[in-house]
Specification:
This is Dilute domain-containing protein. The protein has about 350 residues and is mainly alpha-helical. The chain is about 60% helix and about 0% strand.
Length: about 350
């Protein structure tokens, strides 16, 4: 069931674990050419001893013995790698689908029937509409639910990191592009609202730590810097150099121009940057006049951001001594040894 992330996470754990074991058991072609082992002894005891030594040298549990990779094994490894990548992409895309309607509620600050951005205490008592902060909390709950699924199924931490970093990149694309496309979003008040939500996401990254969040917080740089510009006071005194070297270092000239020209202050009626700054941006954009008009928008990342080596390096040794065998297996006489 590709739409069910509970199922997909289970299979991501199993396929990545199998890929790890296969990677551990196959020698790289030509790796043993430079250091050939001595000729094995013909005695049965010597062969047994050599077998135990070679197997225990590869994995702590001593159950995998490296062998030369032949065509069928290499083909199976290639297909298994494709399965891991496909399942990873399904989980990531399913999470994006869950996040999409939640992000839509966080793009612009909700307004009450009276037209104000935030409710007063009296309005909150008489108004049954949700508090603006609840929209951001819904995103946090969605992230927590996905993290629990991944951890419960022992998915390798590197894959958990990549799922969240790409999901945060998706959040960044949706929020940032909305600021550059919708004038009603590019306001002082809306900047304050999005900034409060970004603080919630930063807190979440700190709570789950780098082991699972990875570089997720860095994926929000465009939105963070754009919001930083929206909420700063006295924009008319800021020079172009100050914007590009201090405030908005990752934003392009086209992106800065969009924000500065769309910006309006719905709280204090302050002005955007000075006409000189706008003129400087226009001058710098003349060289890019042949580019597509929407070149200032960000694109979603659909790549597969990990390798087999990344998975192998982050696999954890799990203890299964207290796990009861499946009842279906115990009904088969050949599996009676599991009870010992």
């Amino acid at each position: 069931d590709q739409d069910n992330n509970d199922h997909m996470v289970y299979w991501l754990s199993n396929t990545s674990a199998l890929l790890f074991l296969l990677q551990s058991s196959l020698k790289t072609p030509g790796s043993s050419a430079a250091h050939k082992p001595p000729a094995p002894s013909t005695s049965f005891f010597s062969r047994m001893t050599q077998s135990f030594r070679s197997s225990s040298a590869n994995l702590p549990v001593g159950i995998v013995r490296q062998v030369e990779a032949k065509y069928p094994a290499l083909l199976f490894k290639q297909q298994l790698t494709a399965y891991v990548e496909k399942i990873f992409g399904i989980i990531r895309d399913n999470l994006k689908k869950e996040l999409s309607p939640l992000i839509s509620s966080c793009i612009q600050v909700p307004r009450t029937s009276k037209g104000t951005a935030f409710k007063t205490s009296e309005e909150s008592e008489s108004d049954s509409s949700p508090d603006p902060a609840s929209h951001w909390q819904s995103i946090i709950e969605c992230l927590n639910g996905t993290l629990c699924r991944l951890k419960e199924n022992s998915v390798p931490p590197i894959l958990i990191q990549k799922i969240f970093t790409q999901s945060f990149a998706y959040i960044n694309v949706q929020l940032f592009n909305s600021l550059l496309l919708r004038r009603e979003c590019c306001t002082f008040g809306n900047g304050e609202y999005v900034k409060s939500g970004l603080a919630e996401l930063e807190l979440w990254c700190g709570q789950v730590k780098e082991e699972y969040a990875g570089s997720s917080w860095d994926e929000l740089k465009h939105t963070r810097q754009a919001v930083g510009f929206l909420v700063i006071h006295q924009k008319s005194r800021i020079t172009y150099d100050e914007i590009t070297t201090d405030l908005c270092t990752v934003l392009s000239v086209q992106q800065l121009y969009r924000i500065c020209t769309l910006y309006r202050d719905d709280n204090y009626n302050t002005q955007s940057v000075s006409p000189d700054v706008i003129a400087s941006m226009k001058h710098l954009m003349t060289d890019d006049s042949e580019e597509d008009g929407s070149s200032f928008l960000l694109d979603d990342d659909l790549s597969i951001p990990f390798s087999i080596e990344d998975i192998s390096g982050s696999m954890k040794v799990n203890e299964f001594q207290d796990v009861k065998p499946a009842a279906e297996l115990m009904e088969i006489p050949a599996f009676q040894f599991l009870q010992e």
